[in-house]
Records
---
Amino acid sequence: MSTEDSAVATRAAAYPDLDHIYAQCSGPGGLRLAEHLAEAIGLRAGAVLVDVGANRGLQTCWLAKEYGVTALALDPWEDRQDGRPMVEHIAGNAREWGVADRVIAVRAGVPDTPFAAESFDFAYCTTTLEMIRGLQGEAGYRDALGEIHRILKPGGMFGLGEPMHLDAPIPEDLRPYVTRGEFC
């Protein structure tokens, strides 16, 4: 592990209760994926972040706490386990993590957000867009990406983690926007 990799893993490693973390996250990666994306996009204190498909909002709250951002956590669904809207879970996690003043839960999804163009410094999304593509096809996927682009400020950064979307090829016109790395 490189020095850079070990520094990146430091924040996530401070939260060792993986059973709790994975019970609150929608897919693989948990806080380590959140940390990797935050570092990759240069997330910084004082910025405004939108978390698209926040699920129960644990990663959103963690990003607000560890990186000092204000975050809007979007999720349009109800929890499959208890039937409550995900925004209730997000609000509860924000209180538990001490970031209720910086995490706002919004019951919305992409592409149907209530936000003005160029509203956010950063967008963050894990294990969400592959579900949109599965439910709405490529057109829905493109609409969701278009909405994220619309609400990002010029020069804004989008961190996308789709660990369950490895079996479909990246559309050629999106390839220039994909981070080049060992997994691409």
---
Amino acid sequence: MRSGNAASILFGTPENFSEGRLDMFPIVHKRQLSEAVFEMGVEAPAVARKAKAGQFFMLRVAEGGERIPLTFSDWSAEEGWIRFIFMRVGKTTHQLSHLEAGDALADVVGPLGVPTHTEGLGRVAVVGGGVGAAVAYPVARAMAESGAQVTVILGARNADLIILEDEFRALPLRELIVVTDDGSAGEKGLVTAPLKRLCEAGEIDASMAMGPAIMMKFCAATTREFDVPCTVSLNPIMVDGTGMCGACRVTVGGETKFGCVDGPDFDGHAVDFEELMSRQRVYTDLERESDAEYSKECSCHL
């Protein structure tokens, strides 16, 4: 077995050897959901056996590459695969978007993080904005399977960016509400409008939001007005995913927490969203420059 990434060995490095070398993680499925959003499935039996709703994993596209966190959108313990959805926003996700079924990833480490609490709930609203729908899907499924009355609010800027709508409709939900900023699908407006209606009507006992930090901030503000608990799934900058580096620290209720080991779920009413969003922007320019250089390299080899 190769040495090096001890976490990979602990959390799911494959045990298949071929011609004296350790196999990587084969890609078994790829689907493009929109211009910049992709769904990918990877063979990772050890990870799939332990995955739970709300958890995430870390991957590397190739040896020496950046490690990035992604949340499970689906998995099969029996068939040994995990599935995730990502948006092409930087160099690593750009590289990932070029891979196809039959290619392989260097590392898949997980499951990481604390699973979402999905049992013993009554009436709950699950809000998924943009690619946050990928996080919301397994959570809503687990809640519904545990007997909760689940209303899902699915939002995006326009109809082309709505993802997993068919998958949500196949769940035993109380209701699915689709919202787009421009009104090209479902209601016109923001996800906070139907969330507020549910709160005003007393139709929910709790809520959960997954998506852009600014969306989660306003979902938390909306529910706070009605004393409806709001859990948010945070996506801070993350390096190792095991609590060692401190890059994912967030302030919750005036205390420092780590997104990777204390979360990713936190009380939305207690999160310092301004700090979270400020930290998320720290490497934006460097990420843009790195992606531009990679794009230039790609074009040179066409």
---
Amino acid sequence: MAVRKEASSEISVRKQKVFTGPQIILIIVVTLFSLSCVVPFINVIAVSLSSKSAILRGDVSFWPVEFTTQAYEALFNDASMIRSLFMTVGMTVVYTLIAMFLTILMAYPLTKKRMRGRKFFSFLALFTMYFSGGVVPHYVNMLDLGLYNTIWSLILPAAISTYYMIILKSFFASLPESLEEAATIDGANDFQILIRIYLPLSLASLATITLFYAVFRWNRFDDALYYIQDRNLYPLQLKLYNAIKNTQQVDLTAMQEGSSAVANNISQSIESATIIFATLPILVVYPFVQRYFVAGVTIGAVKG
């Protein structure tokens, strides 16, 4: 019995994972990189929940000082900010649905060798990744198409990404052709094969690309800066951009008057609260698609 216990203890010791030097270095690098991403966010949260006097004294680091929710109360009492939030959520949902619909309908046919002109259409799609007409032609198109100062100017121009289409196309192409052949023998058409075979097997890729589209639309504000004049149509990120821009203008004015520090710190709590307000919704969505994310980000490496 004693011999067996000693043998089992030796086996358990062998099973214990021993980190090598390169692994320890990798863990340290990943930890430092993670902290570089998390620490600034924690500081923004602390500033948004601290009093103006504490911010003015420079006492706020990673924990709220003289805890207060005045900055968030000011945001929620701003009707335009709440309107921008709901408008941005709705716009992101509509944009993501349209983008995924178009991406699927373009990626799936391009995987079919029997499709005539497949290489030509693939070339047209790839061409747009490297060459663009620029902002001025886009602006003229918005005017000519009647989309200027409408919500559709923020949805339709970027409704499909060639890069994400190629990723989804690569995954579709990696699926066994025997599945399609068996479905064809059973009398299924291309649409039925796509709905009943390809899409159910592509949940990881679809969830990942959906997340990428949603984050892209949620974070973007430059197109609204060019195409939107009606303040009621301002997305949340443009409101945040204007808040930071106004803060910088106040700081510049205060600097000329010799009171830059006071102006900067008083406005910093509102600015930090706006950043959290604009970032939190997309962070809430991410955990629901996280389990698909790891599998989905490597799709492009499966098959070219």
---
Amino acid sequence: MSDVRSLISLCMNKRVFIQTHNFPDPDAIGSAFGLQQLLLRYGIESKLCYDGKIDKLSTAKMLESLDIRMYSGIDLFMELRDDDCIICVDSQKFGGNMTDFTGDEIAAIDHHPTYVEVSYRYSDIRQVGACSTIIAQYYEDREIPPDERVATALLYGIKMDTLNFTRGVTPEDIHAFEYLLPLIDKKRMSQLEHSQMEYQDLKAYGAAIENIRVIGCFGFSRIPFSCPNAMIAILSDFILSLVEVEVAVIYCAREDGLKFSVRSERETIDAGELTRSALDGLGDGGGHAAMAGGLIPVAKLPLLGDRPDDFIRERFLAVAENGGAEA
């Protein structure tokens, strides 16, 4: 584990920006906010930033409830300078889901696999269930208890990314839970956990059920209208809950292209490798062994041909059959 004191030293007397992946989820928000508030304890101010958009559901509710401010790339376009320090959190440069902002990426704190090696001045990349777990350990190691807002954000990020400690969980995540639980705002946590869906999202469930196609251990489903990232992720977990399905591939038609959410419970199929290989040459994808995401941009959609659903299914199945998704 890297010593966060070296990161603190790097940030002294610098303009600091903490950047998440383009569509920040609760874990990205929690870990970025937690790091921001830790740096502030040492007199280091920073701004949280992302490119893309904030989804509805859990993410927007989290920002509002915990009074967290994040800036989009458009907000910062005229502000960023070449000598600004950028810390990648829950993301890595050239990882396929993070825009390369103006500035110097001095650090990466992440729990995803590395696909493109980058020489950071500070690096803490670990295979744990949630990036928020890493930030929680920083607080514990420095013996600086997080306040209620930070503890709540971190624990909510851990719970969401590990599906309430049922997916990709490690002993470090469990320890972080034990550390954070006495410090959280229980009322706010309850509100966050019970406000994750809107009435209109029931249509997405209906579309996922109507369009499902089960082939072997794979469950494929297309949502023919735009959905937030959080909803697509919920649907992939929903399809994965079927007894017949061990790998779920859900994709949604949006203005920016086809957005994918992939889940795997099959030990021999790595969801991240499966998605990265299946979308190679078409778009970007990647993630963990159990969960991954990807995007085929609008400009590449003609490559799918006249029968895009068949093309996508055949592509994923071929990768799995040829061993390109082995865990």
